[in-house]
Amino acid sequence: MVDFRSTGCPLGTLCLIALFSISIYVEVSSEIAAASQDKTTDSGDEANTVRSLVIKGNDSFSEQQIRALMRTDVWSVYDETVLAGDFEAILRFYKGNGYRFARIVEAQNYIKRFEDGVYLGFEIDEGIIGKITVSGNTNTKENVILRELLFQEGDIYTEADKTESERILRQKSYIGSANIVPQWNASSETVMLHIDITDLWSLRGAFDPLPLVNPEGGKFLIAGTDFNLLGSGHFTQLRYEGVIEREEETQHLIRGRYQMPRLLNSYWKFDGEFAQRLEGNTWTSFLERPQYSFSLERPQYSLKSRWSATLKVSELIHPRRWYENGVKTDIFEGNLQTASGTILRYFGDRERQNYIGLLAESQRSRYVLIETFGESEAAPSDRDIKSVGIIVGRKRVVYHKTRFHRKMGQEEDFFTGSQYALSVGYASPLYGSDKSESYARFIGISAWTRGRRILSTTLIDLATNFTTRIERSKIQLQTSWYYIDVFNTGNDIYTVDKGFRKNGFFDFHQTLVAQFKTDIQFGWSGEDQVTLGSDNGLRGYDPQQFNGEKMMLIRIESRTLCGGALFSKIDDALGAVATFIAKPFIKRSVKVGLVLSATAFVDAGYIWNGKRTFQLSEPKKSVGFGLRGSFSRVSGPSIFRIGLAFPLDVPSASAFEPRFFYGFNQTF
């Protein structure tokens, strides 16, 4: 018989637990329902509850980002004051991100009330671009200007796109200044953009008769260049160089070059150069010595671009001279054949980016001894290197707009961010290299500014090749410091669009520049050498006055930019002469934009190797003064220099014996 008393206790316990659980559930459910009811009834009734919220026009930001800015949301209580505050928060968010003309379209907003609640909807106009106009393009075609912009009609206007578009335009050698002015048009409810540029004179010639005035010889140059062919933005050049060196046959080189910045209206850039070299006067060998260089590049056109690529093929023939104690000992003919390709992928935003890429290169070099004048250690090696590698890097992109640093008068975008890149690669006989070899290279660029007074930039370049041990290495370091407006005169003394400012008969702008650079080699004995002379910054000496394996150079220069009514009159007079000469070809007046700067400088350098140790007390020094100038209204304006330098450490010359010098394309 079953004993019901023994089972009654557990069964009763289970019943009590079940009843207790049911009571708790009912109580909690009642509280939730009461709370939900209180949420609506405490502020009114169910008719004030937001049942739907529709957001339109937010093409640049997600709906979740917009809703996160609002206090009004579905199931909240509708409050007109709270919604107005939400609209203000949304507009602050847009304007803080550069959407200057963003607005809430009142005509598209709706508030619909029903018995079960309130239904809301609003539309954001992020600032649509309407008409775009261009002025100042006297030479350049309007479509050439428009294609460089990061926006077109119908796009959304942002301050970041405007700033970067101006910077892209200023980088063109045929444009002196670029300003984009946005304005809201109430009738069309769009953003109207006006682009005002200053076109530069694009056709330029060059003539350098150095061998006619220098008994030591030099380079005789005649060239014609058009930086903006027929207003298309294409670059063309034809030049003749006659290189005359003492105790050498004259070398003749005819070179033609063509650049197309937008191949077939794409972002690909084509650059092609073809040259013919002749030794002596044997013209029959002229067609037997061709040289060429062709490249196809897809640059990171905008900071919004996510990739870039470069393909390049070239064959160059060039003489290579070797020096011992400043005396030429050997002349080699070098033949260098190169084919390379690189592709990079970028991650990040406009200011901070990481990137990674692949590269492949084939490089074949051959050297033939042409003439020798004495004993030396010169022994350049023939190589056939085929390598593959990877690149990783990071950059922080910041620019400071200024003038009179690398150019004279044009607006400059001085890079004040940082960039670091590491590339490693491997060459192997498996894919045709003459031996197995690894390499690594690190490049770092860092710059900064302190207010508008001090700017600085530094470059570090470390490269090494190794097998089972380090074979050879190179270290290059360069840092430059600019202390501007010493007299607090401002850098608006001259601009290409307005000319010289009216500030009296004389007007001055002072800049102090200091530069340190070094070039150090390890394991390159007989393969390569470092020289020190006028070619790399030690003014007053011969181009290869000193030679070795390691070099340091310090340069300090004071620049006084000259302006005022006097120099404005000089510029006007030169413009009148240029207009008279060009009158048969063009009808408008020509402005050359002559800008001059008086300079005083001190240079000091060291050079040493394994045989000559570094001696701190034995620098190679020079001092001098001169003029630094540019025709700033001419395309691709290069800096020209003339002056006197006094070498202080030439054994065969007396102290303070002046040497006249001049040069082109020298930005320091």
Descriptive notes:
This protein is mostly beta strands and 668 residues long. The chain has seven helices and 32 strands. It has helices spanning 4-41, 63-67, 80-96, 142-147, 159-170, 210-213, 565-582; strands spanning 50-56, 103-114, 117-125, 129-135, 175-185, 190-199, 203-209, 217-226, 235-245, 251-260, 269-279, 290-298, 307-324, 327-348, 352-372, 383-396, 399-402, 412-415, 418-427, 437-450, 454-466, 470-484, 494-495, 499-500, 507-522, 530-532, 546-548, 550-563, 594-608, 620-631, 640-647, 659-664. The strands form six sheets. It has a 20-stranded antiparallel sheet. A three-stranded mixed sheet has the order 1-3-2, with no helix packed on it. Strands 4-6-5 form a three-stranded mixed sheet. The longest helix is centred in the N-terminal third of the chain and has 38 residues, at 4-41. The protein is globular, with a radius of gyration of 35 Å. It starts with a helix and ends with a strand.
Report the β-strand fraction as a percent range: over 45%
- Helix residue percentage: 10-25%
Amino- and carboxy-terminal Cα gap: 114 Å
Structural class: mainly beta
Would you tell me the overall average pLDDT? Answer: 87
Shape: globular
Poorly predicted sequence stretches spanning 5 or more consecutive residues = 1-11, 24-43, 283-287
Rg is 35 Å
Q: Count up the helices.
A: 7
Using DSSP, what is the number of strands?
Answer: 32
Biggest sheet overview: 20 strands, antiparallel
Architecture blueprint of SSEs:
Blueprint (H helix, E strand, L loop, with lengths): L3 H38 L8 E7 L6 H5 L12 H17 L6 E12 L2 E9 L3 E7 L6 H6 L11 H12 L4 E11 L4 E10 L3 E7 H4 L3 E10 L8 E11 L5 E10 L8 E11 L10 E9 L8 E18 L2 E22 L3 E21 L10 E14 L2 E4 L9 E4 L2 E10 L9 E14 L3 E13 L3 E15 L9 E2 L3 E2 L6 E16 L7 E3 L13 E3 L1 E14 L1 H18 L11 E15 L11 E12 L8 E8 L11 E6 L4
Parallel strand pairs: 1-3, 4-6
Antiparallel strand pairs: 2-3, 5-6, 7-8, 8-9, 9-10, 10-11, 11-12, 12-13, 13-14, 14-15, 15-16, 16-19, 17-18, 19-20, 20-21, 21-22, 22-25, 23-24, 25-28, 26-27, 28-29, 29-30, 30-31, 31-32
